[in-house]
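Record 1 of the preview.
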Amino acid sequence: MASENSPDRPPVALDINGVLDLHTFRPSELPPLLADYIDECRERGILSLRIIHGKGQGVQRERVHRLLKRNPFVKAFRLAPPEAGGWGATLVELAPLT
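->
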């Protein structure tokens, strides 16, 4: 999968394994990246995701949560437990393909 990057950045190949680390992506890249990643995971039967957004001041986390709330294929999401990243990561449950 290649992310939808801005014209000045080449596409980035991502492993589709249920873990998405957002540290290297710009905030403007998040909406298409997250939507595409969710679609690819569902197509591959990966329905449990961990999105790593970092701890920081919570701006990235809040943006990710807003995008997840709007995605019709997201059944539920919550902050990860401490051993999976704590408040620096979000666990997501996806609806299967029908």
